[in-house]
Amino acid sequence: MLFVAFCLVLGVLGHVVASGFTDDELVPLMPFIWPKDEPLEAIVIDLESYLEQHVTVAQAGLDLLSVTVDQTAVCESRSPENGTFVVLCRNDELYSLLETMQSIKDRYTHQFCHDWVFLNDEPFDEYFMTGIVLQMPGGMISFGQIPKEQWGPPSWIDLAEAAKKQQALVAKNVYKADSNSYRNMCRYYSGFFYKHPLLSAYKYYWRLEPGVKYYCDIDYDVFRFMRENDKKYGFTISLFEYRDTITSLWEISKQWMSRMSLPLDNMVGFVENADGSYNLCHFWLNFEIADLDFFRSPQYQAYFDHLDRAGGFYYERWGDAPVHTIAATHLLAKSEIWWFRDMGYLHSPYLQCPQGKAFLSQRCACNPEADFTLSGISCAPLYEAIQNDLL
Ligand SMILES: Nc1nc2c(ncn2[C@@H]2O[C@H](COP(=O)(O)OP(=O)(O)OP(=O)(O)O)[C@@H](O)[C@H]2O)c(=O)[nH]1
Ligand SMILES: *[C@@H]1O[C@H](CO)[C@@H](O)[C@H](O)[C@H]1NC(C)=O
Ligand SMILES: [Mg+2]
């Protein structure tokens, strides 16, 4: 025991001396290069000792975890596009994530080997990272940690006031009203993920959540599609937000947007009623394929900062979905927004399932009659009407 502790301390000191990085630099250390032709058992032993050094340091709170496994040599054909998958999740979500990745691998990544970035507010453990890496069909696979100051209420939030307002939402039975971790997640996805150092090398991302499933073949590189067609924001399912979670979001957003010069061919009609109020439509954010540079733009960042100052991520329970949606519909041209209706996609309880010819040619495995688009609580008809100038 003493010996183990001694080795840990030595390892930790060695790391700090060797890396020389300060807390806020967050530079990824040397990647682990996956040797192509070695026996798997040997690779796993080396991988685990590489991971362990980093996990030990991160769990001791001495540095944020930042680990990269270079499996590009394993890709059958690597996508030349500047994009990556992004997954924010916890260590205990490994198995539902593996199922999700299996469906992505079957339907998509066996043809287009992309990179992956996994983020967590706590350090990922060796068990999680090894499990993920062994599943991968290749690519650059990175695991990062979220800086403390980006996860949790900022200093100007009055915590007593926030707790009081939270109780009022709980009394109204509002979905996730009592969850602070959900609030942290929504704020992070609204204003910080695109600034993470592990994402700074990329332009496009595809957001995945543990537990979602893909049911149809996707035979083209989605990042190439985004680039060639000048798309900046893509979604699958769109629906109505719970009004009580965003009581003041629309007014605050409208005031801010009224000072901006918006593109004339924007998509505000997707979110705004004739009387100027919010119709509650939003893109469901467990799926998102988008241009990180849109979020990195000074305009989006200023919008987020304004919302963050107002405090509604904690005083109310603003979702990242209405925030991204209000931003995209106001700040982008409608031609830059895209509905991926060809994706067979499930995030419980809602399913998008292509119909007719698409169902057949993409060999879908979902029930087309259970398609959310047909349910009457989808915003897709409004989206279609606006895209086709029918309104
Ligand atoms: N690391 C980490 N990940 C989180 C945390 N909260 C949420 N996430 C991730 O973000 C995803 C979205 O959060 P959920 O709680 O599932 O939110 P949701 O999809 O709106 O709600 P559900 O209907 O419950 O799935 C989850 O799948 C998690 O992977 C957190 O506190 N830490
Ligand atoms: C990828 O995109 C990012 C963000 O736009 C950019 O900074 C970077 O130079 C791009 N990389 C390549 C290889 O084009
Ligand atoms: Mg979820």
TrEMBL record:
It comes from the Eukaryota. InterPro entries: Glyco_trans_15, Nucleotide-diphossugar_trans. It is found in: Membrane. Keywords: Glycosyltransferase, Signal, Signal-anchor, Transferase, Transmembrane. Pfam families: Glyco_transf_15. GO terms for cellular component: Golgi apparatus; membrane. GO terms for biological process: cell wall mannoprotein biosynthetic process; protein N-linked glycosylation; protein O-linked glycosylation. Residues 1-18 form the signal peptide. GO terms for molecular function: alpha-1,2-mannosyltransferase activity. Its main location: membrane. It is a single-pass type II membrane protein. Belongs to the glycosyltransferase 15 family. This is Mannosyltransferase. It comes from Candidozyma pseudohaemuli.
